[in-house]
């Protein structure tokens, strides 16, 4: 075999990662992949290994890295408990269409299928969660499998791949030829697609442009903005994809997701053309599939998506276009727009007016106003600041009152998983060390991954963590109060002293009780050289009374 030499499976694996351009790996170490760790030790100048405290957090860090870069995030965990912990990150990557590769150390080949110590059939376990799940038994085939994993993770609708590798596959030596770097396959619309879409827009009186999904980059965002401007298209974004279009732009008109405003819901229902770019129109975006008719819709629908399997899967469209968002946006930016009409211009102004009314701060007679502290960050933070959050009642404040101005600046799970915010903030600060990174979390959400404060301190990451403490699983309490009034149960929490908790790791901590105190505490946190936790304390009744989802 030409151009080959004897190497361990672990060395081949790490060599493949380097060839594919990997510069960061997130992991919780395990004995089942020690040969890979040993090989990573030899490439420390090329690949940074971030050691985490829990596999769910490690996988979420890799997922966030994938969101930020558009390249597969890389995570290593051990078999059994390690992989099952990491599965939540795989689910997040699947529903968020994020490229990610999870490597799982597996039991030795000779004892497979005997339910050995921590053995799981990962091909079966991850089959419904991942785009592809496989096991590599022959060390010589590691480059082949890794190359396929990268191509699978990024092409079409991006998503997660899981590769299980037995311990002795990593330690055995073999003769193998190195792989080549993966090359993403880019797709775009045809000239016929663009002409048909242009005709539909020209004859529409109340069109809407809806942006979501993954695969965006700064150029694609600039191109889609040029397209929207040329065609006077009021632009909506989907749940937790607010950063793909500048929220201050005169055409930006709001978010379709959990808690969509009644006014925006009516606008969507009265539109006569929807141009949907990148989003698969999920349950959260469409109000449990009720916002748009599933079959023979009364309005016309142009659906652009990188995966042909998503076109027609749920919604019938007037014009399905199989294209990645970047390819479509680049082509759409070059189109010649029809003459502007007074009706269309007024339609866009009305939608923007609705949005500006929605984000106006309500009157508040409480000394702590969560809406005001979030809105205040628009004046404090630069356009490139990265905001992360998990799930909970607190997130509704962030999504309504913070205005995203650039891409990529929003890291939030469309699948609604808790515990995501802190791991995502760590990944973001590692990738962008000179950019402000702010994590919002509820008290319940934060403690699902709060142990990663140790990771943030270890790597000296100056992230700001805002914990909204209402001593409750607030979002669940809100739904409970609606469905079972007066029967609150199993949603109260008993919390630690969050400030002492943060300081015990070596981080900073401050408690604020008033809106006024928050700003000064936040500005101090931005200047700190280590993580800072700011606890915002208010009772659950006040929290829910202020909630945007109740207004």
Structural description of this entry:
It is a single chain. The protein folds into three domains: 5-176, Rossmann fold (3-Layer(aba) Sandwich), CATH 3.40.50.970; 191-358, TPP-binding domain (Rossmann fold); 370-550, Rossmann fold, CATH 3.40.50. It is built from 21 helices and 20 strands. Strands 3-2-4-5-7-6 form a six-stranded parallel sheet, sandwiched between helices. Strands 11-10-9-12-13-14 form a six-stranded parallel sheet, sandwiched between helices.
What key attributes describe this structure?
globular; alpha/beta; 3 domains; 551 residues; 6-stranded parallel beta sheet; 20 strands; single chain; 38% helix; Rossmann fold
User: What radius of gyration results from the CA coordinates?
Assistant: 24 Å
| CATH homologous superfamily annotation of the largest domain | Thiamin diphosphate (ThDP)-binding fold, Pyr/PP domains
The chain-level mean pLDDT equals 94
Structural class call reads alpha/beta
User: What is the CATH level 1 assignment of the largest domain?
Assistant: Alpha Beta
Strand order of the largest sheet: 3-2-4-5-7-6
Topology:
Layout (H helix, E strand, L loop, with lengths): L4 E4 H11 L4 E4 L6 H8 L6 E4 L3 H15 L3 E5 L3 H16 L3 E7 L15 H5 L5 E4 L6 H13 L5 E7 H5 L1 E4 L14 H12 L4 E5 L6 H14 L3 E4 L13 E5 L5 H9 L2 E5 L22 E6 L13 E4 L2 H8 L9 H17 L11 H11 L5 E4 L5 H7 L8 E2 L9 H11 L5 E6 H4 L6 H6 L5 E6 L4 H10 L14 H7 L3 E5 L2 H12 L5 E6 L2 H7 L5
Parallel strand pairs: 2-3, 2-4, 4-5, 5-7, 6-7, 9-10, 9-12, 10-11, 12-13, 13-14, 15-16, 15-17, 17-18, 18-20, 19-20
Antiparallel strand pairs: 1-8
């Amino acid at each position: 075999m030409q151009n080959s030499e004897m190497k361990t499976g672990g060395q081949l694996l790490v060599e493949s990662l380097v060839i594919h351009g990997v510069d960061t790996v997130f992991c919780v170490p395990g004995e089942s992949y020690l040969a890979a760790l040993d090989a990573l030790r030899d490439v420390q100048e090329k690949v940074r290994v971030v050691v985490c405290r829990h596999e769910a957090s490690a996988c979420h860090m890799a997922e966030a890295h994938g969101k930020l870069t558009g390249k597969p995030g890389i995570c290593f965990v051990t078999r059994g408990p390690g992989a099952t912990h990491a599965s939540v990150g795989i689910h997040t990557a699947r529903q968020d269409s994020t490229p990610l590769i999870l490597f799982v150390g597996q039991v030795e080949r000779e004892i497979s299928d005997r339910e050995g110590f921590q053995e799981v059939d990962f091909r079966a376990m991850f089959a419904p969660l991942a785009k592809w799940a496989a096991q590599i038994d022959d060390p010589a085939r590691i480059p082949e499998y890794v190359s396929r994993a990268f191509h699978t993770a990024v092409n079409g609708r991006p998503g997660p791949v899981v590769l299980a590798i037995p311990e002795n596959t990593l330690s055995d030596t073999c003769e193998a030829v190195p792989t080549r770097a993966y090359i993403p396959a880019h797709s775009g619309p045809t000239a016929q697609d663009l002409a048909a879409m242009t005709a539909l827009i020209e004859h529409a009186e109340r069109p809407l442009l809806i942006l979501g999904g993954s695969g965006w980059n700064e150029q694609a965002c600039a191109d889609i903005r040029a397209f929207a401007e040329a065609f006077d298209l009021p632009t909506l974004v989907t749940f937790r994809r607010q950063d793909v279009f500048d929220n201050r732009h005169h055409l930006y008109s709001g978010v379709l997701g959990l808690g969509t405003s009644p006014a925006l819901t009516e606008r969507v229902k009265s539109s006569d053309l929807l141009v949907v770019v990148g989003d698969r129109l999920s349950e959260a975006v469409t109000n449990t599939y009720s916002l748009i008719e599933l079959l023979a819709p009364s309005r016309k629908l142009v659906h652009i998506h990188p995966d042909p399997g998503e076109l027609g899967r749920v919604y019938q469209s007037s014009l399905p276009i199989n294209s990645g968002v970047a390819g479509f946006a680049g082509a759409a930016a070059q189109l010649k727009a029809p003459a502007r009409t007074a009706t269309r211009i007024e339609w866009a102004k009305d939608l923007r007016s609705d949005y500006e009314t929605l984000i106006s701060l309500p009157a508040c007679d409480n000394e702590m106003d969560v809406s005001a502290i979030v809105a205040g960050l628009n004046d404090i933070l630069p356009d490139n600041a990265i905001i992360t959050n998990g799930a909970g009642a607190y997130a509704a404040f962030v999504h309504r009152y913070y205005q995203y101005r650039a891409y990529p600046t929003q890291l939030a799970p469309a699948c609604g998983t808790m515990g995501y915010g802190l791991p995502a903030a760590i990944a973001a600060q590692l990738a962008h060390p000179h950019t402000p990174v702010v994590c919002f979390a509820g008290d319940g959400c934060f403690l699902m991954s709060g142990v990663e404060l140790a990771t943030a301190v270890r790597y000296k990451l100056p992230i700001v963590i805002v914990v909204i403490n209402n001593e409750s699983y607030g979002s669940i309490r809100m739904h409970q109060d609606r469905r079972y009034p007066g029967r609150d149960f199993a949603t109260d929490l008993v919390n630690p002293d969050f400030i002492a908790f943060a300081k015990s790791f070596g981080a900073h901590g401050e408690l604020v009780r008033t809106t006024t105190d928050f700003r000064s505490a936040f500005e101090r946190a931005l200047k700190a050289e280590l993580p800072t936790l700011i606890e915002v304390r208010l009772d659950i009744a006040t929290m829910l009374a202020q909630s945007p989802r109740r207004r």
